[in-house]
Amino acid sequence: PAKAEPKDFLHISDFDKATILKILDRAKEVKALIKSGERTYLPFKGKTMAMIFAKPSMRTRVSFETGFFLLGGHALYLGPNDIQMGKREETRDVARVLSRYNDVIMARLFAHQDILDLAKYSTIPVINGLTDYNHPCQIMADALTIIEHIGQLEGTKVVYVGDGNNIVHSWLLLASVIPFHFVCACPKGFEPDEKTVEKARQAGISKIEITDDPREAVKGADVVYSDVWASMGQKEEAAHRRQVFQGFQVDKALMEIAGPKAYFLHCLPAERGVEVTDEVIEAPNSIVFAQAENRMHAQNAVMLHVLGL
Ligand code: CP
Ligand code: NVA
């Protein structure tokens, strides 16, 4: 029997391969419409979205708010001082109150358990805008960007260089549903969550490698991917991490080992001169701004899907 469609988008692997590819096709379609200047497609007309941010954001906030508006809806920004989930009010109460006003919730939180609780008690769809554990909207946008530039994600070699963080967990979960070659090159002690690596390996869909040798890892890469060494909530560790992560900077020499066909991706914000050099991020094969733009288009399609539109 077919699995019941989940109401929420909390992890990439909440959807099966066919659904992910369908959403990405829809993203391309609606992107073309928006870019053509067409402003009469308003599927979110009369709908509202509550956006809860416990952490800072540029892309996530602006892309969700703008995308929802362009398709006819109204999005509310609720910053770290507004809801204070778990402090001012219990998550289960926030979930049930917002469900009575809004059609969809998007949340960027610290603890992953908080978004699971939010989804559990909400009667409306909940979309994960990043937790300490994962960042599924980012990886949907990344997949869209790879499909646009390479033609397909299937069979490509994606090499992530840096901290085994929330971005890596979403890549691993994507690799558990769509076949490609995923390599994470990270310093010892900064590997991604073991259970998530195991889950991706057990799925038997993709080739998964975890290594501490970035130079070996990037050979033959279609995509080299970088992210900050200290994520939100870890900024006090930044100085220490800069020491430990020596050798994991994506620079020109590393991109040369990867080869001329390799694109550079970064979820942004980037710390130039730390995890990536200015030269690499400004190079012609760096597609980080196309990638950032696709946040909006990928998410529009995710929202259309969870709202059944
Ligand atoms: N990539 C990303 O999520 O960016 P923001 O933190 O600016 O939303
Ligand atoms: N790993 C980063 C991603 C930012 C979009 C963080 O969590 O801060």
Automatic annotation (TrEMBL):
The keyword DNA damage does not apply. SUPFAM superfamilies: Aspartate/ornithine carbamoyltransferase. Keywords: Amino-acid biosynthesis, Arginine biosynthesis, Chloroplast, Plastid, Transferase, Transit peptide. It is an enzyme of class 2 (transferase). The keyword Chloroplast applies. One of its GO terms (biological process) is citrulline biosynthetic process. Signal peptide: none annotated. GO terms for molecular function: amino acid binding; ornithine carbamoyltransferase activity. It catalyses: carbamoyl phosphate + L-ornithine = L-citrulline + phosphate + H(+). One of its GO terms (cellular component) is chloroplast. InterPro entries: Asp/Orn_carbamoyltranf_P-bd, Asp/Orn_carbamoylTrfase, Asp/Orn_carbamoylTrfase_sf, Asp_carbamoyltransf_Asp/Orn-bd, Orn/put_carbamltrans, OTCase_ArgI. Its EC number is 2.1.3.3. Its main location: plastid. Residues 154-305 form the Aspartate/ornithine carbamoyltransferase Asp/Orn-binding domain. It is found in: Plastid, Chloroplast. Residues 7-148 form the Aspartate/ornithine carbamoyltransferase carbamoyl-P binding domain. NCBIfam families: orni_carb_tr, PRK00779.1. Belongs to the aspartate/ornithine carbamoyltransferase superfamily. OTCase family. This is ornithine carbamoyltransferase.
